[in-house]
Amino acid sequence: MDIINYRRSVRSFTDQVIEPEKIEQLLRAGMQAPSARNQQPWHFLVVQNREQLLKIYETSPYARMFTEATAAIIVLMDKTNLKNELMAPQDLSAATLNILLRATELGIGSCWCGVFPNSERMASLKVLIKAPDQYEVFSLIALGYPQDADAFRFVDRFDPTKISYEEF
């Protein structure tokens, strides 16, 4: 539960490069996500090139954190073998969250930048990364070691007024 409690969106990063074995651990975490009908519709694109990270920022006014990130994972929907396309966003959300949680556990800052269902953003990113037709961009994850030593702090978000039992 500690990892869940201490995960925060980190938008300021040092210039320390994330080790390749840690990138692999993040990808493995993403692939361990639950998936409706076991369709596993994900494909992950790792970006570490500074110029490409800056181009990602240019696709969205909300992606400023990519100007400081040392890496990014672009989560894509692979439509090749989908059994139920309507369930894919849930699968990809679970994969994205798994990556964020594992990053926190490894001391890596992360920030989920939503792309889906904004068709304009999805299209511009697809062109940028030269994704084949069967792929759709779902989310962006900025990654890097946090600038702020207090980046992983607990903030209690529990609100009992947002809970109902049995009926409203």
Describe the structure.
This protein has a single domain (2-148), classed as 3-Layer(aba) Sandwich (NADH Oxidase). Strands 1-2-4-3 form a four-stranded antiparallel sheet, sandwiched between helices. The protein is built from five helices and four strands. α2 (20-31) packs antiparallel against α4 (88-105). By secondary structure, it is of the alpha+beta class.
Descriptors for this entry?
four-stranded antiparallel sheet; 4 strands; NADH Oxidase; single chain; alpha+beta; 168 residues
**Unreliable sequence segments:** none
Instruction: Kindly name the structural category.
Output: alpha+beta
Shape: globular
Span between termini: 28 Å
Q: So, the CATH homologous superfamily? A: NADH Oxidase
Helix content: 25-40%
Rg (CA only): 16 Å
Portion in strands: 15-25%
CATH topology: NADH Oxidase
**Beta-strand segment tally:** 4
Average predicted confidence as pLDDT: 96
List SSEs in N-to-C order.
HHEHEHEHE
**What is the CATH class designation?**
Alpha Beta
Count of individual helical segments:
5
